[in-house]
Amino acid sequence: MTLKVVLVLAVLSGFVSSRPPTDNGPGHPRGPPSPPYLKNVSDDARKEFFDIVNNDNLTLAEIDTQLATWAESNDISDSYSEFEAKKASYIAEIKAKVTSVVSNLPTVQSQLESIFENKDQTRSAQREQLDELRNKYPQEVGVILKLVGLIGLGFQKGPRDIGRIGLPRIQ
Ligand SMILES: *[C@@H]1O[C@H](CO)[C@@H](O)[C@H](O)[C@H]1NC(C)=O
Ligand SMILES: *[C@@H]1O[C@H](CO)[C@@H](O)[C@H](O)[C@H]1NC(C)=O
User: Fold this and answer.
1) Which domain holds residue 55?
2) 73 lines ligand 1 (CB under 6 A)
3) 55 CB under 6 A from ligand 2?
4) Overall domain count for the chain
5) Is residue 90 part of a domain?
6) How confident is the model at residue 152 (pLDDT cuts 50, 70, 90)?
7) Which atom of ligand 2 is nearest to the CA of 54?
8) Same structural domain for residues 65 and 8?
9) pLDDT (tens digit, 9 = 90+) per residue, 90-143?
10) DSSP string of 78-131, one letter each residue
């Protein structure tokens, strides 16, 4: 499995397990809403559910197996499977999008570099080019600019002894 896929899965596997065990409400302010089938089970069953998903001693596969058993014994296997299938297709969709963005990065990077390095244009022409590229590849441009910021060559601010680098504002 590639790194990007691992990252996406790491984020998404927090989907359910990051929820606090006592939260029975319609959704945590910072998390996803509870799976809809949780509304149809007893308080005890709901507690069992959270005991499973929040048990750090279980492997992810063990959590899946125990949840399937839990769903069966609470007579909601259909809703459970339906939700799991939706989750799987959502994850697949994100993986496909990430793959596409990652594969576009080299070409967008070189286009960005050409835009920034071409001095035979006015600033406003440069800005237009950037906007165009950004409209075409919003996520790719966003990722590259974030990387530039992370690595430290801020587009708007350079190191102290350089000050403003003088590139156009792009955010
Ligand atoms: C909850 O139970 C109701 C009544 O049996 C049913 O109509 C509904 O589909 C169930 N919802 C879920 C998410 O299981
Ligand atoms: C997890 O394992 C630790 C160490 O073996 C144990 O103390 C703890 O009770 C276990 N937690 C659960 C929820 O089983």
Assistant:
1) 3-96
2) no
3) yes
4) 2
5) yes
6) confident
7) 13
8) yes
9) 999 999 999 999 999 999 999 999 999 999 999 999 999 999 999 999 999 999
10) HHHHHHHHHHHHHHHHHHHHHHHHHHHHHHHHHHHHHHHH--SS-HHHHHHHHH
